[in-house]
Design goal:
The protein is an alpha+beta fold and 531 residues long. Helices cover 27% and strands 27% of the residues. It has four domains: 8-243, no CATH class; 257-340, Elongation Factor Tu (Ef-tu), domain 3, CATH 2.40.30.20; 352-435; 443-526, Beta Barrel (Thrombin, subunit H), CATH 2.40.10.
Length: 531
């Protein structure tokens, strides 16, 4: 299974590998140690572009399953030491590089069951074990580019960006259909030898085939350059029969939501008008739903298209502000779209609430303390609202934003940022405020107020005096406890004296981030002391 999203720097590394291995009179004569060394370099580049998932249990499990296959599967080159990684990435992807490096994105890892994960791992291990990755690179060799790349690896005065244009030609790098079929068939044997369920690969491919249906009959990128899914399923089922492994039936459950209350009658931009068989009141939340797959692509069910906060009701029609769960499908929402009432989870409790004077209005949001709590200046809070829990397929309470109190004496004395993952449940639509538990609070130095893209500077609302001699981290908010501090860092900054503003200059951006990615509300931390 090949990469879903081609990242330039990864392709550059592959290009470097391809040309160096092809250099001189040794074309196609690559020693095992050279292959292993190359895999190590490529691994460093992959991890530079895409960080490891912070899910330690997932890292342990992928290594456990992978090492079982390596030890017991009967690999053709058992002397290679294998390394298995779960990457923090929303793509549905699994891929391998030469020298024994296998990768899963956490999105794909999470939606697969244990047998399915093992099936995909075995497929990727074959790609590395049988040199498919290495051979695919060698087939693309371009001798005219060898010199420049060798100079880079030799430490000459050349930069990686010098060969970006040359690296673009690697967008055609792919395994042959024969390699893919071999990875499937030998992968089944590795699983059988290792005492794992060979049918796991079949189950994984069936599930991946459902991605294809969910994408409107267009194959997802994870299927790019592979044999067509029906063909793969056919020969894998035949191989399972030959191995004496029962072919599991494809039982797809259907779950119907029983809470349909009406339908959309009309729409004006983000305002929805709809009928309702259930009495509603302003502030209630209803959902626009459509048919689709659950999180694990195992049950055909109803999934939310949008969250609607009711603003007005009458006997014949209600209306509300719509917040799309999937912006790409917003255009399909209109007359006839189904409206559902979903049982809300028990209300969250906290130290404050987001009050909305007029539901749907942008300029009337206020932060109010509750239960006798008194806000402090620069106090940080997490607004909790009702979201759609993908894994459980039901509504749940989750932090949907981040609030910093700027003036405790004013109901409007705060700044906030919405959580991108839950853009359909913004803080301005109403939320309960809970206190933020930040283990790095002793180093927190304030929040970004505004961003100067061209000047590469950010204005800061400080929580303490800033020191020009110190270095600071710019980090996105800690939406969840699992968001580790190091992974939240997006940039490095230094304090710059300003006459009427507190300004910091961005000295370094982390890979994948730009000045336009930094938003008001991001955190500023004093860097931890180096021991």
């Amino acid at each position: 299974m090949t990469c879903i999203r081609v990242k330039v720097s990864i392709w550059i590394s592959l290009f470097v590998a391809m040309t160096v291995l092809a250099a001189g009179d040794r074309a196609f004569a690559v020693s095992l140690q050279e292959e292993i060394d190359l895999g190590k370099k490529l691994d460093a580049q992959v991890l530079k572009d895409t960080p490891l998932s912070s899910d330690e249990a997932a890292q342990r499990e992928i290594d456990r399953l992978g090492q079982i296959i390596v030890r017991k599967g009967g690999l053709s080159r058992p002397q290679i030491v294998y390394h298995f990684r779960v990457l923090k990435d929303d793509d549905l992807n699994a891929f391998s590089t030469c020298g024994g490096y296998i990768y899963f994105t956490d999105h794909l890892w999470n939606i697969l069951r244990t047998d399915e994960r093992a099936g995909v791992l075995a497929h990727e291990i074959v790609h590395s074990d049988r040199r498919h990755s290495l051979d695919a690179m060698l087939k693309l060799q371009k001798r005219s580019t060898i010199l420049g790349v060798i100079l880079i690896l030799a430490g000459a005065n050349r930069t990686v960006t010098d060969i970006v244009d040359m690296a673009n030609q690697l967008s055609t790098l792919k395994y042959s259909r024969g390699d893919e079929k071999q990875a499937d068939e030998i992968g089944l044997q590795y699983l059988h030898n290792a005492g794992l369920n060979p049918a796991g690969l079949l189950l994984a491919l069936r599930k991946i085939g459902r991605f294809e249906v969910g994408a409107g009959q267009r194959p997802p990128t994870i299927l790019a350059n592979h044999p067509q899914t029906p063909d793969r399923l056919h020969y894998i089922e035949a191989d399972l029969v030959k191995m004496g492994v029962p072919v599991p039936p494809e039982n797809v459950a259907t779950k119907n939501a029983a809470d349909k209350i009406g339908a959309v009658t009309s729409r004006t931009n983000d305002v929805i008008y709809f009928t309702s068989s259930k009495p509603l009141k302003p502030g209630d939340v209803v959902w626009l739903m459509s048919r689709g797959w659950d999180y694990y692509y195992e049950t055909h069910t109803t999934i939310p298209m949008a969250r609607v906060v009711v603003s007005s009701t009458s006997r014949s029609e209600s209306s509300g502000r719509m917040y799309a769960a999937n912006p790409d499908k917003t255009a399909s929402i209109g007359k006839g779209s189904e409206v559902y009432w979903l049982p809300a989870p028990p209300p969250a409790s906290g130290v404050g609430v987001i009050s909305v004077d007029s539901v749907g209005s942008v300029g009337s949001v206020r932060v109010l303390p509750v239960g006798g709590h008194s806000f402090a200046k620069m106090e940080r809070l997490l607004p909790v609202s009702v979201i759609w829990s993908e894994k459980e397929s039901l509504p749940a309470n989750e932090p949907v934003g981040y609030v910093v109190i700027t003036d405790p004496a004013s109901r409007t004395g705060f700044m906030s940022i919405d959580r991108p993952k839950y853009a359909y449940a913004p803080t301005k639509a109403g939320a309960v405020l809970i206190s933020l538990d930040d283990p790095n609070a002793d180093r927190w130095a304030g929040a970004v107020v505004s961003v100067g893209v061209s000047s590469k500077q950010v204005e800061v609302l400080p929580s303490r005096p800033l020191d020009p001699a110190k270095t600071y981290d710019v980090a996105y908010p800690a939406w969840e406890k699992s968001d580790l501090y190091k992974q939240r860092i997006v940039a490095i900054a230094k304090f710059t004296q300003s006459s009427n503003k507190i300004v910091m200059s961005i000295t370094q951006l982390k890979p994948g981030w730009s000045m336009t990615s930094i938003l008001p509300g991001f955190d500023i931390y004093e860097q931890p002391s180096q021991k």
